[in-house]
Design a protein that fits this description.
Elements: H1 9-27, E1 66-67, E2 74-77, E3 80-88, E4 93-98, E5 125-127, H2 129-136, E6 139-140, H3 153-160, E7 181-182, H4 185-195, E8 198-202, H5 208-218, E9 222-225, E10 234-237, H6 243-288, H7 292-300, H8 312-318, E11 327-330, E12 334-340, E13 346-352, H9 360-381, E14 392-398, E15 401-407, H10 414-419, H11 427-447, E16 452-453, E17 462-464, E18 470-472, E19 479-480, E20 497-498, H12 510-515, E21 517-518, H13 520-536, H14 552-561, H15 571-576, H16 583-594, H17 605-628
Parallel strand pairs: 6-7
Antiparallel strand pairs: 1-2, 2-3, 3-4, 4-8, 5-8, 9-10, 11-12, 12-13, 13-15, 14-15, 16-19, 17-18, 20-21
InterPro entries: Kinase-like_dom_sf (IPR011009), Prot_kinase_dom (IPR000719), Protein_kinase_ATP_BS (IPR017441), Tyr_kinase_AS (IPR008266)
Keywords: ATP-binding, Membrane, Nucleotide-binding, Signal, Transmembrane, Transmembrane helix
Domain Protein kinase: 322-615
């Protein structure tokens, strides 16, 4: 450790400036809300907090001081700390989230970091009936796995009566509601209190400070207390504005301005000197810093499961410095280049976009979004293994760019084959591609725990090998279906996560777009559009078509419902007479079910696989009969 340096001239100058401002503040001290700045912001308050709350020492109620911090202000009630999620000025109620004990798990208890009930008895705050009612509906699902009750007695009590977590909410009888059943009750409570908190209301009659404050405010005073007195007696501060006080304020303000200008000039000279001395060592020191992506990935998955890490220089050399002639794809999240490693292996290298030329705020947003998509794709692809899914061979997280290394699929995308000049795919090939894509979707939805929702199943994200086998790729938008809340009042038994709709126009599930509820059936909708592309050879969205038929799903469904399916079937299939076994009609019916308006009417991936195998077997029988003839 280096020895502490004596304060510099700029530091001494700023210290003096702070002292002057402190003097200015004390000379004009006032708890009046009218003197507060209109730009004051301390979430969840949009202006200075009303009595009994305050952010200024000596103002408001001594027991309800607000500490402004990011992202939420905090308050201490009966030696318990809470984050303020919301304040309702009409009902004078607060939404509180307890700040939990980080050392809770030292006895190997559950993930719930509560070791005793939240008790606000003796304070003017009362827990609302709505919060108690919500807890009264909860119960654990059978079979009940009890924790070690000798070490974690409070956990066992909560399993029997979840209302014990809030003092006064204890239920006198067990909940009989099936809707409140939670597989991980303690984990649900942990997540619920952290994200949504509980509501409290304060009763003025329970504290004498409230009565005194009303009397003070009638005299045009501001409520506060004597912060230096052991008992913190109530004080009524008069309004500032006397002539002597104003002169003192003006005098200190002039001195402060002079010192501020002096310190500013001194600070600029010091900053220039520091910048010049550190600029040379910046890049070398940044190389040794821990990469944020690596830290994130290590927290979410063990090193043994993560793919190899490439250096930026390795991938830059493999792609000939990201030569445009080696670009094999370009999407919304990045450009894909053909790379050749030193051992001769060919791989696809995806370089996430930088968005040059954007504003500083937009650039930071894009960086955060790219990093999220980057880490999301690594975590998901490193945990799956299926012959019809693109394999991740490694990644690179570097200040110069974020890169993912995938399988190189040599024969383009399904969109290229369907909509390009080389579209000559037979009916049997199209059925095989539909079945392989469905098998990949079935694996993501049923073989992976928790299930993975791809969110972007499109013909452009289905890559075709030389032997016409396919691999589904581009998992940048994918989500793990980790449940935070179940639809207890819904008639559907489907599970979902709430997230903003993302995906490709023409493939995006309209039910998901309306409700923000993401389920596996959203992938089924996208897959249904791909089936329509396979049967028609048309694009999912084509602005050259009439407005009502611009989306392929709308065009296809309208034709199918009036018995004019033959008008949209790919002419190549009709000319080859490949519908002898009724396979096109059966596939059209399956596609129609996949894009049903109500997602509960859509088949799941397992049903789709079974139906496609039946259609394929029928096609094989027809082919054999034709061969005999």
């Amino acid at each position: 450790m280096s020895q502490s340096q004596p304060p510099s001239a700029s530091q001494r100058c700023f210290s003096l400036l702070i002292f002057l401002f402190t003097t200015l503040q004390s000379s004009s001290a006032s708890c009046s809300s009218s003197s507060s700045s209109s730009s004051f912001h301390c979430p969840p308050f949009n202006s200075s907090p009303p009595f009994p709350f305050s952010t200024s020492p000596g103002c408001g109620h001594p027991n309800f001081q607000i500490q402004c911090s990011s992202p939420r202000a905090t308050i201490s009630i009966k030696n318990l700390s809470f984050s303020l999620l919301h304040y309702d000025s009409l009902s004078s109620s607060l939404l509180l989230s307890p700040i939990l004990d980080s050392n809770r798990n030292r006895h190997n208890c559950s993930s719930l970091r509560f070791s005793h009930p939240i008790d606000l008895t003796g304070s003017p705050f009362q827990i609302s009936d709505s919060s108690c009612s919500r807890l009264s509906l909860l119960r654990p699902c059978s079979p009940l796995l009890l924790p070690n009750c000798s070490r974690c007695p409070f956990d066992c009590k909560l399993l029997k009566n979840p209302g014990r977590i809030l003092h006064g909410c204890e239920s006198t009888h067990g909940s009989l509601s099936e809707q409140g059943c939670q597989g991980d009750l303690l984990g649900f409570l942990q997540d619920f209190f952290t994200r949504f908190g509980f509501q409290v209301e304060f009763d003025e009659s329970q504290d004498p400070y409230f009565a005194k404050c009303r009397d003070c405010q009638t005299k045009n005073g501001a409520c506060g207390f004597n912060s230096t007195h052991p008992d913190q007696d109530f004080l009524c501060f008069p309004q500032p504005g006397s002539e002597t006080e104003q002169k003192k304020v003006n005098h200190v303000a002039v001195l402060s301005l002079i010192f501020a200008l002096t310190c500013l000039l001194l600070a600029i000279s010091v900053a220039v000197t520091i910048f010049r001395s550190r600029r040379a060592s910046f890049f070398s020191s940044s190389v040794n810093e821990e990469d944020p992506a690596a830290l994130f990935l290590r927290r979410h998955r063990s090193l043994a499961l993560l793919p190899p890490v490439f250096t930026f220089e390795e991938l830059e050399s493999a792609t000939n410095r990201f030569d445009q002639k080696r670009k094999i794809g370009d999407g919304g999240f990045g450009s894909v280049y053909l790379g050749q490693l030193t051992d001769g292996q060919l791989l696809a290298v995806k370089f996430l976009h930088h968005h040059h030329g954007a504003t500083a705020a937009a650039t930071e947003h894009c960086k955060a979004f790219s990093m999220k998509s980057f880490c999301n794709e690594i975590l998901i692809l490193s945990s799956i293994d299926h012959p019809n899914l693109v394999k991740l061979h490694g990644y690179c997280s570097d200040p110069r760019g974020l890169l993912l290394v995938h399988d190189y699929v040599t024969n383009g995308t399904l969109a290229d084959h369907l909509h390009g000049r080389k579209s000559k795919m037979t009916w049997r090939v199209r059925i095989d591609i539909a079945l392989q894509t469905a098998l990949a979707m079935e694996y993501l939805h049923f073989a992976v725990a928790p299930p993975v929702v791809h969110r972007d199943i499109t013909s452009s994200n289905i890559f075709v090998e030389r032997d016409m086998r396919i691999k589904v790729g581009d998992f940048g938008l994918s989500r793990l279906l980790v449940l935070t809340e179940t639809t207890a009042t819904s008639a559907s038994s489907s599970d979902f996560v709430c997230t903003g709709p993302q995906g490709t126009p023409g493939y995006l599930d309209p039910d998901y777009h309306r409700s923000f509820r993401l389920t596996e059936k959203s992938d089924v909708y996208s897959y249904g559009v791909v089936l329509m592309e396979l049967m028609t050879g048309m694009k999912a969205v084509d602005q050259r078509r009439e407005k009502r038929d611009m989306a392929l799903a709308d065009l296809f469904v309208s034709k199918l419902q009036v018995g004019l399916l033959d008008q949209v079937v790919d002419p190549l299939l009709a000319a080859a007479g490949e519908d002898d076994g009724g396979g096109v009609a059966a596939l059209a019916e399956l596609a129609f079910r996949c894009v049903a308006v109500d997602k509960d009417d859509r088949p799941d991936a397992k049903e789709i696989v079974l139906e496609l195998k039946r259609i394929k077997s029928r096609t094989r029988v027809v082919d054999n009969d034709v061969a005999k003839c």
